[in-house]
Amino acid sequence: MSRLLAAALTVVAAAALAVGAALGIVALLDATPHQPNTPLITYEQAQQGS
């Protein structure tokens, strides 16, 4: 009987660990990285005055 209890507790612990890891991965993927709003390429506009 103790082997059955140990197996059941192991399954429950493994399931809880898997769910926790999955939620942690989803939380990491959902985090938005800091992205500054600076363009990589800028074009200078020519002066059209005479």
What would you note in describing this structure?
- The chain has one helix spanning 2-30.
- The protein has 50 residues and is an all-alpha fold.
The largest sheet is: none
Taken as a percent bin, the fraction of beta residues is under 5%
Helical run tally: 1
- H/E series, N to C? H
How many E strands?
0
Computed Rg: 28 Å
Q: Give the uncertain stretches in residue-range form.
A: none
Main structural class: mainly alpha
How is the topology of this model organized?
Elements: H1 2-30
Provide tags for this entry.
mainly alpha
What does this entry show, briefly?
The protein has 50 residues and is mainly alpha-helical. The chain is built from 1 helix and no strands. Helices cover 58% and strands 0% of the residues.
